[in-house]
Amino acid sequence: MTTASTPRTSPATSSQTDPLQLIDVDHVRFYVGNAKQATYFYASCFGFQFEQMADLTTGSRDAAHALMTQGNIRLVLTTGLSAEHPSMKHIAHYGDGVKDVAFTVFDATAAYDRAIKNGAESAYEPVETKDEHGTVVSAGIKTYGEVIHSFVSRHGEYELANVKKGGRFMPLFEKVKSFALNDHNRKHPCGLKFVDHLVGNVGLGKMNHWVAWYENVLEFKLFKHFDDKDISTEYSALMSKVMASGNNLIKMPINEPAHGKRKSQVQEYLDYTEQVPGVQHLALRTDDELHSIAELRRRGVDFLTIPEAYYGQVWERVNTMLKAHGHDVVKEDHEKVKDLGILVDSDDEGYLLQLFTKPLQDRPTLFFEIICRRGSQSFGKGNFKALFESLEIEQERRGNL
């Protein structure tokens, strides 16, 4: 296999398509301390397929990369092979976490040029990587903290439609020939379909700055807004604004801490990242919340514990709202929802079911949300108090409240 990575200039003729029309979340890149070991965690606990890899055996000399897939979710786990690799320096400061939220676009160079014109700071200039199978063009811009957004355009066998069917991800990536958990996961699926949204934590007073950044640079729009009256308990609070791409395909809530008697979970996050903003959690969509949560619990995933008193009030609140707007009541078995510890909320468009894992590593800086939408396009506003009380229990156990 021959590959080449060279800077790519803008094409002579511009595309008629909006350069910042985002087609999909191309992938989410995690920087991890040991990609080989991390594959076992995400495969065993969350049912991801270890599908492809790029490492020393495939010609990748600077880093090892593992492509983990489930439904339309693509996680790339990256570990540097020397102390000088950016991932190793990043992990030393912030631990394992999200480095790159990459978007598929029609023309990565045009998207990058438009973002730079809109005021973005470059993370890396357009690079074309190609081999006999096709071409991938990538370019990156910096967002909050150490996080970047890559624009990715794909050609030949690397087109997104082929990747979704299990085709080649990028040059130097090769199919994993044998991984026992892959067969197990095919027989016992967790049912996770795609990335519903990604949440970023920023410092006090910085939320509106980054809201304006997404509006100006990526041409997103404000989708929802929650203040400290919406998201608070007796002890802590935060504020959040949800930004969405023009087609509402990609949603990125931005959180900042608010003043409270004790430390909010956003501030706890920042305390373990040297006050550097970053991605707090990924919300992964499922069509069957009860099945997904039951299977994930069976695999040993640790979820937040929801107070039993929550279920004494939730059904009247949720079903009253649904009936008021002409919707059917929650169809899922109420006892099973309670037994699995799932949160339920509703709005004028329908309802949702959601549950949050505990942190995925020792530092309390990254977790997953498992969410199922039955019409609702909100984020569980009615659950914020119960969720925060559960989070505070965990913070107190860690000595960080």
Characterise the protein shown here:
Strand 13 (237-244) and strand 14 (251-258) form a beta hairpin. It contains eleven helices and 18 strands. The longest helix is centred in the last third of the chain and has 14 residues, at 384-397. It folds into two domains: 15-187, 2,3-Dihydroxybiphenyl 1,2-Dioxygenase, domain 1; 192-397, 2,3-Dihydroxybiphenyl 1,2-Dioxygenase, domain 1 (Roll), CATH 3.10.180.10. It is 26% helix and 33% strand. It has a ten-stranded mixed beta sheet. An eight-stranded mixed beta sheet has the order 12-13-14-11-15-18-17-16. It has 401 residues and is of the alpha+beta class.
Present the secondary structure layout.
Blueprint: E1 4-7, E2 24-31, H1 35-46, E3 49-54, E4 63-70, E5 73-80, H2 86-94, E6 97-104, H3 108-117, E7 121-131, E8 134-142, E9 148-156, H4 160-164, E10 174-175, H5 180-187, E11 192-201, H6 207-216, E12 221-226, E13 237-244, E14 251-258, H7 265-271, E15 278-286, H8 289-298, H9 314-324, H10 334-340, E16 343-347, E17 350-356, E18 367-374, H11 384-397
Parallel strand pairs: 2-5, 6-9, 11-14, 15-18
Antiparallel strand pairs: 1-7, 2-6, 3-4, 3-10, 4-5, 7-8, 8-9, 11-15, 12-13, 13-14, 16-17, 17-18
Global shape = globular
* Rg calculated over all Cα atoms: 21 Å
Number of helices: 11
The largest sheet is: 10 strands, mixed
User: What portion of residues belong to β-strands?
Assistant: 25-35%
The CATH topology of the largest domain comes to: 2,3-Dihydroxybiphenyl 1,2-Dioxygenase, domain 1
Unreliable residue runs: 1-15
Query: CATH H-level name of the largest domain... which superfamily?
Result: 2,3-Dihydroxybiphenyl 1,2-Dioxygenase, domain 1
Find the count of extended strands (DSSP E, 2+ residues): 18
How would you write the strand order of the largest sheet?
1-7-8-9-6-2-5-4-3-10
SSE series = EEHEEEHEHEEEHEHEHEEEHEHHHEEEH
Distance between the termini: 53 Å
Name of the level-1 CATH class of the largest domain: Alpha Beta
Quaternary status of these chains? single chain
Total count of domains? 2
Q: What is the helix content? A: 25-40%
- The CATH architecture of the largest domain comes to Roll
Structural class: alpha+beta
Summed over residues and divided by their number, the pLDDT gives a mean of 90
